[in-house]
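ENCODED BACKBONE
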Amino acid sequence: MRNEPLKLTLILLSTTILLYHTFHLFYLWSEIPDTIAIHFSKGEPDQWGSKYFLFIMPIVSILIWFFIGLLAKKPEKLNYVNLTEENKKVQYVKAEKVMVFIQYMGAVTIIFANEAFLRNAVGMESGFPFSIAIVLLAICFMAPIYHLFWAATLKN
């Protein structure tokens, strides 16, 4: 991969966050009530489920990470704006970088959202991890938009 420093940084960051969350989940497991809030409307819980739902989001996070990783390995299969023979290598490298970024930050976003659910379930402050999840989600949406505008301004 041509983006090794970025990928190494994201691997270390996301692995650390996942391991922390996993440790925190098992550490607090006995304190989590059997039924927890799994959906909120206007800041108040309106749907309840088993505490085992806290394992679903990390699994989904890993699956999303895996499938986006498959896309990142083949940047030539993605759609491009203003792609020419002269700029295709630059566009492929940049697209691969954006996909790797989304791959890892998307997974971390889901982990932070699950951390907010976990903290809420045991009565801890959950606003900080939820806020981080929202910010990371916004960044994951903005990254391809930035790439789109960057590609549109490329000279042939």
